[in-house]
Specification:
The protein is of the alpha+beta class. It has helices at 6-17, 21-39, 47-58, 63-74, 106-119, 148-158, 179-188, 211-225, 241-248; strands spanning 83-91, 95-103, 123-125, 134-143, 162-165, 169-174, 193-202, 206-207, 230-235, 237-238. The strands form three sheets. It has a four-stranded antiparallel beta sheet with strand order 3-1-2-9. It has a four-stranded antiparallel beta sheet with strand order 5-6-4-7, with helices on one face.
């Protein structure tokens, strides 16, 4: 799952613990390849490629691996041709779920994603059934702590929308087309940007207070997120920290 949710943070730590680096690499390389195919191989002129390149480097993907992916995207090297396919559905409890994939076999991926929903107590939905509940945004993570008054000044000057802060991290929200420009501006102010990405942000969240219900939801989103073709999973649940902590343990 992508975005700035507590579940995404938990998933990230879990991924580090179970050494799922190869799968992370594969997904990032695929994103780089598609960005290069759609916008060209020059990262300075292709904002999407620049963002994907930075994400891959932040995940320690070797530079030569990234460059080969770019060449496959531009046609300089042979490779599979991926297309973006998005699925919408519901997790237990009526939780809205959006799944973004990159696949070289739409029929296979479609059948497998539908099976994962069904097997884990969810249901697939028609296109548009849940997407209206999410807004596309840019999210830039900045290393904290930073004085909030100073951060507000920098965010506004950089062209960002707003930000939220914790003891260790500041999350800056932007319009999708502004994420690269805002990132560059913030770095120009001397802050340390740890990630910059496009995400879907739920307009409203559904609180999940029961541990048994939370377990069902997380089982479904984890199963989908682990699929090789899945790039991002978004959902509008809000699970309290104390319940998330039990799963992380």
């Amino acid at each position: 799952m992508s975005g700035h949710s507590k579940w995404a943070t938990t998933k990230h730590r879990k991924g580090a613990k179970d050494s799922a680096r190869a799968k992370v690499f594969a997904k990032l390389i695929r994103q780089v390849e598609v960005a290069a195919r759609e916008g060209g191989g020059d990262a300075s002129a292709n904002a999407s490629l620049r963002t994907m390149y930075q994400k891959a480097r932040e995940a320690s993907v070797p530079i030569d691996t990234i460059e080969r992916a770019i060449k496959r995207g531009t046609g300089e090297l042979e490779g599979a041709r991926y297309e973006a396919v998005t699925y919408e559905g519901y997790a237990p409890g009526g939780i809205a779920v959006i799944v973004e994939t990159l696949t070289d076999n739409r029929n296979r991926t479609s059948a497998e994603i539908k099976h994962l929903f069904s097997k884990n107590g969810g249901s697939i939905a028609e296109p548009g059934a849940v997407s209206w509940q999410f807004d596309r945004k840019g999210i830039i993570e900045v290393k904290g702590p930073i004085d909030e008054d100073q951060m507000l000044e920098w965010v506004l000057e950089a062209g960002g929308e707003n930000f939220t802060a914790t003891a260790d991290t500041v999350s800056v929200t932007t319009e999708p087309q502004d994420v690269g420009r805002v990132r560059d501006a913030l770095e120009g102010f001397g802050v340390t940007v740890t990630s910059a990405d496009l995400t879907l942000v739920p307009q409203t969240m559904i609180e999940v207070a029961e541990e048994s219900e939370a377990k069902k939801i997380l089982r479904l989103v984890d199963a989908i997120d682990d699929h090789d073709d899945v790039q991002n999973v978004y959902a509008n649940f809000d699970i309290p920290d104390e319940i998330l902590a039990t799963f992380e343990e």
